[in-house]
Amino acid sequence: MNTTEPSLDELIWQVVASIPAGKVCTYGGIAKLCGYPNHARYVGRTLKNLPPGSALPWHRVINSQGRISFPESSDQYLQQRQLLEMENIIFHQQRVRLKDYLWLG
DNA sequence: GTTGTGACTACCA
DNA sequence: ATGGTAGCCACAA
Q1: What is the pTM of this model?
Q2: What is the full DSSP assignment across A22-73?
Q3: Is the CB of A99 under 7 A from strand B?
Q4: Four-point Cα dihedral A29, A45, A70, A94, nearest 10
Q5: CB of A46 nearer than 7 A to strand B
Q6: pLDDT tens digits along A27-59
Q7: Which nucleotide is the nearest neighbour of A41, by CA and C1'?
Q8: Does any strand B atom come closer than 7 Å to the Cβ of A96?
Q9: Which of A6, A18, A48, A69 is the Cys-Cys partner for A10 at CB 3.0 to 4.6 Å?
C-alpha cells in the first residue's frame, strides 16, 4: 500500500517554503504548524539534511530568541544573516525583533 | 537495548 | 539581560 500521506519532512519543507520573504519563523513555530508542537529539534535536523542547492528559504527559520542558531564565528551564521538582511530584516546586535518579523502562518 | 547528540524551548535564579 | 537546567524527540553508533 502506498500511503499518499506526506511525511513529516515533506510537511516541514512545505511550511518553510511558505514563509514570505522579509518574515521569519521559529523552529518550534514550524513544528507547531506541522502539528508536532514538540519537534523543534526535528525541524532543525530536517533543515540540516537539506541538499546544498535547495531552493527552500531555510534562512528564514531562527530560534525562539530571535537569534541565528549557529555560532557567530561560523560561515553559516554570516550567510544566514546576510540572506536575512537582504530581505530588509534588521538585526539589533545579534538578534532580530520577532515582534516585527515573526510569521504566524 | 542504551547512550550521546543536536540549526530547540521554557523556566528559573 | 545572561547563564544554567530540565524536558523534548528522532537518530546514529
Answers
A1: 0.92
A2: T-BEEHHHHHHHTT-TT-HHHHHHHHHTS-TT--S-GGGEE-TTSB-SS-TT
A3: no
A4: 0
A5: no
A6: 999 999 999 989 999 999 999 999 888 899 999
A7: B8
A8: no
A9: A6
